[in-house]
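Quarterly update from the structural biology core.
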Amino acid sequence: MKKLLELNNVKYFYQTKESEIEALSDVNFSLEERAFTSLVGPSGCGKTTILSLIAGLLVPSSGEILLDGQKIQKHDARIGYMFQRDHLFEWRTIWQNIILGLELQKKHKDEKKLEFAEELLKKYDLYAFKSKKPRQLSGGMRQRVALIRTLVLEPALLLLDEPFSALDFQTRLKVCDDVHEIIKREQKTALLVTHDISEAISMSDKVVILTKRPAKVKKEVLLNLSGATPLGRREDKEFGNYFELIWRELL
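Predicted structure, tokenized:
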């Protein structure tokens, strides 16, 4: 399968007044096109730093990050970023939130883009709510809106930074299924950062495990589970074995 994203010997140092702190040490991994990958590691090891580097919000101290064979650019438009919170603007309608990125890119009058946005709303059962405000939606629906807002920009790669962490457990399970279905149906490549091992296993084709800071890749675990949805995959008899393997690597 074609590699869409490659991190080659990526290092990153934080500068402080007193010293230089090594956050990442020779990070190497790749994402296959249309695959779903999760990134796990000890708290504070640099998972979100890696996402920021991939998104072009930070620049590696050394090494390179390639997307489809080309170096990542600052604020790279080929990459969509879904944050821990949905960041929907309460004073805007759902439709106005959905097309916010198009407005910022001066593409909000592009008929094809607007038609695509409407298609996504209809496909994922949100069209009836396009005139509502975010406070009128459930937490799960808000996350679907946030994902669709990102997909409207047609990114090649989706970065998800613990997007379910603010949800209660039952809602979280349902939203994992919803988000996974949307990403697979839209044939997107995704990288999820999460501290939840079960979530990583249930959603992913591969889990990349990081060491403590300065982080590097300790192990990559390829997953082979039955079940069409994350919830269904949790019922596979091998699920517990994968959990124990990853948990032991993180200890």
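The CA atoms of residues 30 and 203 lie 17 Å apart.
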